[in-house]
Write a structure and sequence with these properties.
Layout (H helix, E strand, L loop, with lengths): L10 H23 L20 E2 L4 E2 L5 H5 L4 E5 L2 H15 L21 E4 L2 E5 L4 H17 L6 E10 L7 E9 L5 E6 L2 E6 L4 H9 L9 E8 L19 H13 L2 E5 L2 H10 L3 E11 L10 H26 L15 H12 L3
Helix pairs in contact: 3-8, 4-7
Protein name: Nucleoside phosphorylase domain-containing protein
GO biological process, one term: nucleotide catabolic process
Pfam family, one: PNP_UDP_1
């Protein structure tokens, strides 16, 4: 180990040693989250004892569908808020990686019978809508992580592709999250379980964030930055907006709070990052959040940008994630698409029951 002339480690060496320690800690957890072949292992011993695991909000089941046949080649899970956005991403990534659908077929919403989330499969890529807020993405993540387990997927990579409000950043700026915090600047996701508050670290893969940042180019004609993302539990008061139905603070108090966020290194505000980071980290899944700012919150609260501009801005995170996926496939070798992706029913009776269960409105 090298030291400087004063016998002390320099900053880069300290940083590298910290990353090595974190990596060693992660490797130690691999036994809990991976089998020897790299396939996903759940931190839940009860699932193996169940006759069937119904992924209720995806309209899938471990015995009604052949999940290995349908999803066994999945390497990338890309999530975004709305069904339309993720359908558009599925179309986009299909053209980017050169995936072709069988003649006479078209992209299918695999979870159409759930009426809750939309899911499209393009070769090794799943494109899924997660709705708005922590509860919605939390439910989805539980079921998608279980889907990875049942399908025996090996070392999947998760991306959240979204929109956000910038803190001192112009609209259209792409933000890659290298950290996540809640509205109190706590870097964990807390959830009441059996009457007790459980806090799970909200950690994203910093190496993945650096690799994504390296894929941005001057030709993009817009800025791509990294930083901490604040996850709010609410769109209005939780984000310090002045335009909600209720507001018990002044504009000066709002501005003081936002400046405090900027001083703490927070680049943007959205509503899913801590949940996404904590649950993927707990599952041992490499994950990243890439968002585009729709406005600078230091300059206002409402999005007034023309619709056609917003549509172009929302493509920017998709472009960056697509670059990563293309590079990965080029580096690792194209993953075989044969024999995967179409609806594959194991039990017609169970398949019908799963559809009926998922269609039940509460």
């Amino acid at each position: 180990m090298l030291e400087n002339s004063n016998g002390n480690l320099n900053g880069n060496q300290i940083h590298n040693n910290k990353e090595e320690n974190e990596e060693s800690h992660t490797n130690g957890e691999n036994k809990e989250t991976r089998y020897l072949d790299g396939s996903v292992r759940l931190r839940n011993p009860h699932i193996e004892l169940m006759d069937q695991d119904i992924l209720y909000h995806l309209a899938l089941g471990s015995e009604s569908h052949d999940l290995v046949e349908m999803f066994g080649d999945v390497k990338f899970v890309c999530m975004g808020g709305t069904p339309k956005r993720m359908e558009s991403f599925a179309e986009y990534i299909m053209s980017e990686i050169g995936h072709r659908l069988p003649t006479g077929t078209q992209l299918m919403d695999i979870s159409q019978y759930s009426y809750r989330y939309s899911m499209y499969k393009v070769g090794p890529v799943l494109s899924i809508s997660h709705g708005m807020g922590a509860p919605s993405i939390g439910i989805l993540l539980h079921e998608v992580i279980k889907l990875m387990y049942h399908a025996k997927c090996r070392d999947p990579i998760f991306f959240r592709i979204g929109t956000c409000g910038g803190i001192g950043l112009d609209g259209g700026t792409v933000v890659i999250s290298d950290d996540a915090s809640d509205g109190m600047m706590n870097k964990y996701y807390q959830v009441p379980i059996l009457g007790k508050i459980v806090k799970r670290p909200a950690k994203l893969d910093k190496k993945l964030a650096r690799e994504l940042k390296a894929l941005s180019t001057p030709e993009d004609l817009y800025d791509t930055v990294t930083g901490t993302t604040m996850c709010a539990d609410d769109f209005y008061e939780g984000q310090g907006r002045l335009d909600g139905a209720f507001c018990d603070y002044t504009e000066a108090e709002k501005m003081e709070y936002l400046e405090r966020l900027r001083s703490a290194g927070i680049k943007n505000i959205e509503m899913e990052a801590t949940t996404f980071a904590a649950l993927t980290h707990h599952a041992g899944i490499k994950a990243a959040v890439v968002c585009v700012t729709l406005l600078d919150r230091l300059k206002g609260d409402q999005v007034c940008t023309p619709k056609e501009v917003l549509v172009e801005w929302q493509l920017r995170p998709q472009i960056l994630v697509a670059r990563y996926i293309k590079r990965y496939l080029q580096t690792k070798g194209r993953i075989s698409f044969d024999g995967h992706g179409s609806m594959c029913v194991k039990s017609p009776r169970r398949f019908k029951l799963v559809q009926q269960e998922s269609q039940t409105f509460e």
